[in-house]
Specification:
The chain has 193 residues and is of the alpha+beta class. The protein contains three helices and ten strands; from the N terminus they run ααββββββββββα. It folds into two domains: 39 residues; 136 residues, Glucose Permease (Domain IIA) (Distorted Sandwich). The strands form two sheets. Strands 1, 3, 4, 5, 7, 9 and 10 form a seven-stranded antiparallel beta sheet that branches. A three-stranded antiparallel beta sheet has the order 2-8-6, with no helix packed on it. A hairpin with a 3-residue loop joins strand 4 and strand 5. The longest helix is centred in the first third of the chain and has 19 residues. The chain binds zinc ion. Zinc ion (ZN) binds next to loops.
């Protein structure tokens, strides 16, 4: 239903709040994490296309939630096509949370950006970001590749934005996996502005 990152984030948040609340001596600080969450939503999201030199014509604006999409069922991001080795850059201000190698995504980077949105960069050829690295729009985090389940396909960046706080108004019970649309945001919404 939700991503591993979303689950870990919510478990961490709720256990922090629970820990603070359970102890009499720390109970007065319970509002701090809630306040931090509120402040995060106020941060403006300045966003750029996360591949150096790419334009809006380098991805298909109908590919978000495209179905059928292999073992993922629906396509929960957009694919930005550029030659292998092109710089992948952070789309927003943020903090690199982790880098990973393996599975469907191949070499990936996860970034926490403004408004508690997680930005996922997949199929990278090389990774330049490291955990807890602060990033700004344009910081190089890797290069375009075709690792993971993109092996044998043209090199592209799979770019996805997820939120641990559900956007219930995006839920669409009439389409396949439509309930999950509360947690996966269409990058096209902001990149085409
Ligand atoms: Zn993709």
């Amino acid at each position: 239903m939700i991503t591993i990152t979303t689950r870990r984030f919510l478990v961490f948040l709720l256990s922090t709040i629970g820990f603070l609340f359970r102890n009499k001596s720390t109970r007065k600080y319970t509002l701090i994490p809630i306040l931090v969450i509120g402040l995060g939503f106020l941060l403006p999201q300045k966003i750029i296309i996360p591949v150096r030199g790419a334009t809006t014509s380098d991805w298909d604006d109908h590919s978000f939630w495209a179905y059928p999409w292999g073992s993922s069922v629906t396509h929960k991001g957009i694919d930005i096509f550029k030659p292998k080795g092109t710089d992948v850059i952070s789309s927003t201000y943020g903090i690199a949370i982790y880098t990973h190698e393996g599975g469907k995504g191949g070499k990936t980077v996860m970034v926490l950006g403004p408004k508690w949105r997680f930005h996922y960069y997949a199929h990278l050829d090389t990774v330049d970001a490291f955990p807890f690295q602060p990033l700004k729009p344009g910081t190089k985090i890797g290069t375009v590749g075709n690792t993971g389940n993109a092996v044998g396909k043209p090199p592209h960046l799979h770019y996805a934005i997820t939120t641990p706080f559900p956007y219930w108004w995006l839920r669409d019970p009439n389409i396949i996996q439509g309930n999950r649309k509360m947690f996966y945001l269409d990058p096209d919404t902001w990149l085409r502005e």
